[in-house]
């Protein structure tokens, strides 16, 4: 039996209105999706006898994963001067920061981050991690016979334009690979030895005036084959700071020989402390 045209028209309009009402009850996914929080800026601070290029492999990986990265030049003039400089770099960054230090750079970030609410995590890569009032030379020699750096150092005097003088420390190029980077090719370490940036002798005579790891969560990488600082002192520091710790078979320059592992540790710190 055919439906009269007026009734067919009414049925069609009713069906259309019902369908439209049903669709309006389905929430749009985009309206209920929380935008992802911006990733923190990772600030990488190098140590003595190195420069910011030592972080190249880590920087490339972090940038690939969407992290903003800054790797400033550590002046290597002394703990007070260097930490003040790094603190000024941190002040220029908007938003949360994951602060990473290698070797002497660990002492620098511990002091630079003190009282800075933007720093959400400290990451130590085969680093010095002094407590407040602790002298760097005393900490680095806490376990005698576990590192070979001191006998490999060569002082070179310098003069300033104001007439003051001092001395810089270099690693003897003939011992650079064995002490600093034994798991890298000799062809690479001979270039690193030639390009090393010296640290002022006064730096290791410095005592820390702050230790941000008391209030900021920390992560640490212990390099088992580290002949520059030594695994025993790195383990001691990590336990004292209650750091999230990993150990790997690496020389002192783990960020060069194991950039993927170092990147993973940094990203773990970033995701763990994310809001």
Give a description of the structure.
The relative contact order is 0.16. Residues 10-31 have low confidence and may be disordered. The protein has helices at residues 5-24, 56-64, 79-91, 104-112, 136-140, 149-152, 176-180, 186-195, 201-204, 231-240, 254-257, 259-272; strands spanning 41-45, 69-70, 97-102, 119-125, 153-159, 165-171, 199-200, 218-223, 244-248. It contains twelve helices and nine strands. By secondary structure, it is an alpha/beta fold.
Q: What is the end-to-end distance?
A: 66 Å
Round the mean pLDDT to the nearest integer and report it. 91
The percentage helix is 25-40%
**What is the H-and-E element order?**
HEHEHEHEHHEEHHEHEHEHH
> What spatial order of strands do you see in the largest sheet?
2-1-3-4-8-9
- The oligomeric state is single chain
Instruction: Provide the low-confidence segments as ranges.
Output: 10-31
Q: Count of helical segments?
A: 12
Secondary structure: number of strands: 9
- Please state the CA-atom Rg, rounded to the nearest Å: 27 Å
**What kind of sheet is the major sheet?**
6 strands, parallel
Q: What percentage of the residues does DSSP assign to strands (E)?
A: 15-25%
Structural class: alpha/beta
| Form type | globular
